[in-house]
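Arginase, Ephemeroptericola cinctiostellae. Tokens?
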Amino acid sequence: MSTTIELIGVPTDIGAGARGASMGPEALRVAGLIEMLKNHGLIVIDSGNLAGPTNPWLPPVNGYRHLAEVTEWNEALHEASYAALQKGHLPIILGGDHCLGIGSISAVARHCRATGKDLRVIWLDAHADFNTSELTPTGNIHGMPVAILCGHGPEQLIQIGGVVPAIDSDVVHQIGIRSVDEGEKRFVHQQGLEVFDMRYIDEHGMRETMARALDGMTDNTHLHVSFDVDFLDPAIAPGVATTVPGGPTYREAQLCMEMIADTGRLASLDIMEVNPACDVKNQTALLAVDLVDSLFGKSTLMRDAK
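Tokens:
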């Protein structure tokens, strides 16, 4: 039986420090995401875009920017994503900024608790996103979702999903990190987050990095990939507001996606931070769709199962 994909658009830049990621869902659709998925023999349901508050573009209050609006968007996403999982669908969240990882991953964690699955999160990003109100230099909540999911944040966000923390830090494996704030760096170390930064990838290569990040999964593993397009080097993916030089190349990113596909365990996906306002002819959304194509099994040759 074919897998059913459910696309959930979340058109907001409420957690970001620049406008434009709210246009990301449509950019991904225009880039041919639906057609590509159908070419894999998948059933695709496009649930359209969620609705939520507009971006008031106000300064932070007590270390959090737009906390009420971020909460409302993430609560809506949590419910939509959990409903898709309950139906046996594979949700693909079209962001939107990466604060939406709170609603998405808390829903996956809730689903795993209900079904007895073991959660594994592969977090593809230039940033660790492990800030708190005390550590953040900006107050932008898109720099905080992993910390919030691990129970470090405001009450209304950490309790989305009904259990605090939503996840344990040891389920998260971060790839491609190369920008971490000073206080955040110490906090990541204290919490024992597994981070394969760009130095690790430079020294050991993407193959060993992904082999380690994916090691130990079983048939009972629910694999969630949270793909922030600033994971990629800005030379190939300029359409993000938070570019950091020195990210994975096209081939490194393809290998990363291909090795995830080889596991056969992908069960939910975020595509975050596509910002058409920063892009050139939608090339970043087109590249994201190309990489997601590999995530669902596109390969140059027919390969034997590992």
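The chain has one domain: 4-295.
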